[in-house]
Write the structure tokens for this entry.
Amino acid sequence: MSFELLRKLSTGTLVLTLVTASCFAQADVWYLPKELAAEHIVALCIAETNKVIAATAKTIFTSENDGETWVSVTTPDTELSALCVTPAGKLMIGSLQGGICESADSGKGWTSLKAPSQSVLSMLVTEGGELIAGTADHGIVGSADGGKSWEPAALNGGRIWCLEKSPDGRIYAGTQSGVFRSDDGGKTWRSVATGGSNPGVRCLFAAEDSSIWAATNGAELFRSTNGGGHWIKSDSGITLPYIRAIVEASDRSIVAATASGGVYRTTDHGKTWIVVDLTGTHITCLGIDKNDRLWCGTQDRGIFRSLQPITATK
């Protein structure tokens, strides 16, 4: 069992030392932004500029100095359920109550799009600039005109938990019925099921080599190198593999976070995993910055940011 030592620095920030089997090379391993210390983080995004955007159900926090200080803005009167940043830098949020809003000024002002009324669980912008959204009960809808009008996609039934865009241009959808793939920007879809014990997929990740990772509701993790044509079970060594988020470091190692089993890292495409840290912490989302530092959004404990690169773990 691990326990925690919190030290307050002269800056007023907190550094957390976990006395446990951490794989980081030094004792002080996590930085906790004090403004977010008790927040339930539902979404996390790190822009190419290293700007960090963290969202709770009602508030969006942004930081441009590694989390030292944060600016908070209140979202429209809705419960945030999805977050994405467009190539043009616009911030977009989806709502559990239905609808999508966008902001061109980091959340100071919001414009409501004519989005469908059903709950929005996931969003992304395609290579062609089309916005597609995964809903709770009505499949995928798409807009080619910036949200002014919406049309249902061919995948028009069921719950769409997550959407993921691969470097090869393909788009994947994780649904209650399994994984689906689109080769034409979301216009048509085909099933590429993992074959796991539970077909539902809540987390997808496309690596730089275009391999796709899928975490199922059956606490299994699969990897495919051929667009979902064949899947390999790849969770050996992960305790309680209810995977909530996956990211990739610059050395092409893969980092996965579980609901309560901690953070894990693999350097051999999922054949083996080592536990990095944060066992017992309910992690909801992950991000990785240009310095390979890991950002972990948690349930009711705010954000943890590693003080050294994730690539430094042993």
